[in-house]
Amino acid sequence: MKLCPLCGGVLDSALFDKTTEPTLPVRRLIEQEHPAWQPSDGLCPACALVYVRRHAYTRSQRPLNAQTFPRTTFPYYHPLEYGLLGLTQRLPHHPAYTGKGVTIAFLDSGYYPHPDLGETVDPGLDIAAIDTDVARIRLALEKRPNRIRQYVNLIEGHEGVGVDAPSLWSDAGNSWHGQMTTVIAAGNGQLSGGLHRGYASQAGLLPIKVGRPSGSIPEEDILGGLRWLLRDDNWQRYGVRVVNVSVGGDYPQPWWENSLCLAVEELTRRGVLVVVAAGNSGQERLLAPAQTPSALTVGGVDDANRRWRSDRPGEVDGLRLYQHSWGQAQVDAWHIQKPEILAPAVWLAGPILPVSPLFRELWVLGRAWEALQNGDGDGARHILDEWHSVVKLTRAIRTASDEAIREALLLRMNPHKWVHRHAQHVDGTSVAAPLVAATAAQMLEANPQLTPAQVKQLLLESALPLRHLPEEQTGHGLLQPGRAVGLALRRHGGALAGLPLSGTSISAESLRKLKIPVRVAVDSSETSDAPIGAVDRLVYLGTYARQARSVSLVGSFNGWQPERLCLEPTRNGWWHGGVRLPPGEQLYRFWVVDGESGGGEWAVDGENPVRAESGFATAHSVIG
User: Fold this and answer.
1) Rounded CA gap, 436 and 450, in Å?
2) pLDDT for res 624
């Protein structure tokens, strides 16, 4: 056991070792009150909560970007939180599933094998230090395996297949858009320390280049990409279960008269889910293939880059619509409202093309900016001086005051919509659709027996309704990735069929029928097998931990003490139990002890979409 250096509380030594990386705002608050404290000293979860809640009160209610000079191009709410939230901070996902074994096909104007599309995360890869010479960067990236299963180039009707094609490794401007959609869906977070990781971070990719050399993509060229997938069952050869289409057709047309829509219908019949961007017109006007009945058409929301919780109606009401297109698809006497589902469509981090000069420039500017944010003005000056040939700032600026350097950096960063060393903020239903496609890949990994219609149904069933927004534009509501995967696991053929979703209330009678053990969570370190009677709340909780020796529940109700509130294993690596919780909001995680090493890790509840800031990089799960 160890003592918290701040409050003196007792905490398990193994868990305490996982508390040495508080967020920057929490670290700053602690340092103000405890100057001798170092992050390596750690702190207990209870103290971390105290400080992160204090920090939350200091956030501005209005975006600070308008108050910054020069004005920044994205909203933020505290000087120490200058940047974009990651996907998993916006919409919690299911961390046990990454799309592994599923291939997503993309139709777009061009692509690039971005480092985030690698098979693994390689801490030693320093792609930004390489000059922007196309050949040298390609050589560095080819040394590490990526997840591009095949590459197809259909430009101007000429078919080329092969991952060594020059157009895949090109620095042409039209390579950027497809690189963006693939990385947002399936990036592993290599260049952002995991912050901007996609939901399907281990999925295979099949990029199909369509359109013209100018970058324009006529409808007939999109059709050519779908027909290539259909021909000789190429979709099946490469394991394609999901197709992402972030491009649109030429003019409005009934779906049954449109060849592109009919191709989508045929792919769906063969077992492929087609996810389509609704378009960005802001009008009641759909272009193919968005009006296809079987397609899952995706619109967008604007969360203002703000933290919010799905269990707080006032915070949900703060979500606004993106200016997506909408309309109806008619099937006999039925009308299907499009889009059917929404996903974040603005303030997302889009990767910069590694072979563009902008890549190294923003890398240098970002490093200098981060040094300033950490209070290291001399470090920022050193970086700008070392790389002066890249950023080309005058010596007068490089040796100026911290504030003058900050202003000079913003003047260079803002025109490029900088949000990270390797990313700029992007928007559109083009980036919303890949989030849904990636979630579908997770669901198919969890339950390969699902049909396209079933995946679509579960995505819509799990969506968060947005009743404060126009009904004809919101469909079933906002994507909920973790919950959708949880439902996939419980559909026929899924490993958890017949079990409740984790984090949901359950009756004592249901637990008896399922023969699930019940534990009592109390405000001390002790638990018991007390009989089920009149209780505060009875909640079903579970997590996957296939190689675990033990899994226990830790939280605000038991002082974050592991190995006291143990879950029971099932045959397939799922650990679960019924827990009697005291009234009020309760924060929790699972403490997973590895069966081989004996080391412990804490994990959030992937199926519960309600999360609360913890003071560390990852949030706590919440029972309200």
Assistant:
1) 16
2) 86
Burial letters 276-314, b for 16+ CB under 10 A, else e = bbbbbeeeeebbbbbbbbbbbbbbbbbbbbbbebbeeee
Q: In three state form, how does the secondary structure of 195-234 look?
A: CCCCCCCCCEEEEEECCCCCCCCCHHHHHHHHHHHHHHHH
Give the per-residue pLDDT at 522.
65
Is residue 533 scored above 50 in pLDDT?
Answer: no
Among 3.40.50.300, 2.70.50.60, 3.40.50.200, 3.30.43.10, what is the CATH number of 101-349+428-490?
3.40.50.200
Q: Maximum CA pair distance of the chain? A: 75
Residue of 364 and 130 predicted with greater confidence: 364
Contact 581, 521 (CB under 8 A): yes
Whether 287 contacts 251, CB under 8 Å: yes
Question: Which pLDDT score, from 0 to 100, does residue 18 have?
Answer: 87
What pLDDT was estimated at residue 526?
39
Q: Residue 295 phi/psi, 5° resolution? A: -70, 150
Render pLDDT for 134-162 as a digit per residue (tens, 0 to 9): 888 998 899 899 999 999 999 977 889 99
How far, in Å, CA of 17 to CA of 552, rounded? 17
CB 322 within 8 A of CB 301: yes
- Spans of all domains in the chain: 1-58, 101-349+428-490, 353-421, 504-623
The token pair that represents 297 in the structure block:
């058409």
Do domains 101-349+428-490 and 504-623 share one topology? The answer is: no
What architecture does CATH give domain 504-623?
Answer: Sandwich (2.60)
**Gyration radius (Cα) of the chain, Å:** 25
Q: What is the pLDDT of residues 88-107, one digit of tens each?
A: 999 999 999 999 999 999 99
Conformation bin of residue 96: beta by default, left when phi > 0, alpha when psi is -120 to 50: alpha
Q: How far is CA 603 from CA 10, 122, 246, 607, in A?
A: 21, 23, 33, 12
Q: Which runs of E-coded beta strand occur in 246-288?
A: 273-277
User: What pLDDT was estimated at residue 531?
Assistant: 46
Calculate what percentage of the chain has a pLDDT beyond 90: 80
Rounded Cα distance, 304 and 300, in Å: 12
Say whether pLDDT at 532 is over 80.
no
Q: What is the pTM of this model?
A: 0.95
